[in-house]
């Protein structure tokens, strides 16, 4: 590698701050030709430090973009080839393609902001139309059965009960539930403070039943696992429970219902649905779920027609006369 190329590579690792115009021009040339992996590393650091994204989200971006950055150039033609390959790899599933487009668009905007693109990514891609996806939703009776079928007589049952309380009674995401630490649980005040997407923390109230079961688990049963971490939910070895481990627990505890595809998110979805049908305001639910945008919360508002009709009849002024 020549002295000039070495300087450009150092620039790639260091970023634009303090670089001379000639170095920027050289870097642009080399990047478009061969140095995409280094740029990807720079972008991932940016996502972590500037955007404050979680490790899991950053890893997803990395997995999506590595195939693109293995190419020797970045052009509209190479991007088109990359997307075609991804479409075939994922059998043209719209949700998978949309995710790759989102990852790619963010990366290209990052490069454009740094002055490294010879074209604009604006309106370059049209995301595939996505069907509205709603996870499996349990009825209130089914949720009641799940709780009643967990015996409160051993450490594994109490651990599973605590996990299900966090998913259904407080509506946490699975990442929030398994990442919840003891310091995030305020049993005396009846609050938990989970850390959600973007490392944002929020207040979520504990209902009386959830508070009782969590207190029972933390104060009487959790020590049976000989904890090696401060997370509330533990695996067999006393360490943080994994996402796969949580999924297996939910599958095992709901198997008697005879339903397919019940996941941890199904319980969060059931929480949201039951709160809405009970009359909760959508914006309050948005706060509880930790959604940045109300439009995200609205996906849970798949209420049956009879409920919508009764709500219209009750609230509309012309129906009250």
Can you put this structure into words, describing what you see?
The chain is mainly α and 321 residues long. The chain folds into two domains: 3-113, no CATH class; 140-313, Intergrase catalytic core (hpI Integrase, Chain A). The protein is 56% helix and 2% strand. A three-stranded antiparallel sheet has the order 1-2-3, with no helix packed on it. It starts with a helix and ends in a 6-residue tail after the last helix. Mean pLDDT is 81; it is low at 1-32.
Entry keywords:
single chain; 321 residues; mainly alpha; hpI Integrase, Chain A; 2 domains; disordered N terminus
Instruction: Calculate Rg over CA atoms.
Output: 24 Å
Strand content: under 5%
Q: Which segments are poorly predicted (pLDDT under 50) over 5 or more consecutive residues?
A: 1-32
Q: What's the architecture of the largest domain, going by CATH?
A: Orthogonal Bundle
Q: Roughly how much helix do the residues carry, as a percent range?
A: 55-70%
Could you provide a short overview of the structure?
The chain has 321 residues and is mainly α. It contains 15 helices and 3 strands. A 3-stranded antiparallel β-sheet has the order 1-2-3, with no helix packed on it.
Which helices and strands occur, and which strands form pairs?
Layout: H1 3-14, H2 21-33, H3 36-49, H4 55-69, H5 76-89, H6 94-113, H7 140-148, H8 155-169, H9 174-179, E1 185-186, E2 191-192, E3 204-205, H10 208-221, H11 243-254, H12 264-277, H13 282-289, H14 294-297, H15 305-315
Antiparallel strand pairs: 1-2, 2-3
């Amino acid at each position: 590698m020549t002295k000039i190329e070495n300087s450009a590579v150092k620039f790639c690792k260091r970023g634009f701050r303090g670089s001379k115009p000639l170095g920027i021009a050289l870097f642009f040339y080399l990047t478009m030709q061969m140095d995409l992996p280094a740029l990807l590393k720079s972008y991932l650091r940016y996502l972590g430090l500037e955007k404050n994204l979680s490790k899991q989200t950053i890893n997803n971006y990395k997995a999506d973009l590595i195939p693109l950055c293995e190419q020797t150039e970045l052009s509209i033609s190479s991007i088109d080839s990359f997307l075609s390959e991804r479409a075939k790899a994922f059998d043209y599933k719209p949700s998978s393609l949309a995710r790759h487009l989102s990852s790619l668009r963010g990366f290209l905007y990052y490069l454009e902001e740094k002055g490294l693109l010879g074209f604009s990514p604006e309106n370059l891609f049209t995301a595939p139309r996505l069907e509205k996806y709603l996870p499996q939703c349990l009825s209130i009776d089914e949720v009641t059965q799940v709780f009643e079928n967990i015996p409160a007589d051993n450490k594994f049952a109490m651990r599973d009960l605590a996990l299900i309380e966090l998913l259904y009674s407080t509506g946490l995401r699975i990442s929030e539930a398994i990442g919840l630490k003891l310091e995030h649980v305020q049993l005396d005040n009846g609050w938990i403070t989970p850390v959600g997407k973007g490392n944002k923390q929020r207040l979520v109230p504990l209902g009386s039943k959830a508070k009782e079961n969590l207190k029972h688990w933390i104060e009487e049963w959790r020590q049976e696992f000989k904890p090696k971490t401060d997370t509330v939910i533990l695996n067999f070895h006393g360490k943080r429970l994994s996402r796969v481990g949580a999924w297996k627990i939910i599958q095992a505890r709901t198997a008697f219902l005879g339903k397919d595809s019940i996941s941890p998110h199904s319980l969060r979805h059931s929480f949201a649905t039951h709160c809405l049908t009970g009359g909760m305001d959508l914006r309050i639910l948005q706060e509880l779920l930790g959604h940045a945008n109300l439009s995200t919360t609205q996906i849970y508002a798949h209420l049956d027609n009879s409920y919508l009709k009764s709500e219209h009849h009750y609230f509309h002024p012309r129906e009250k006369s």
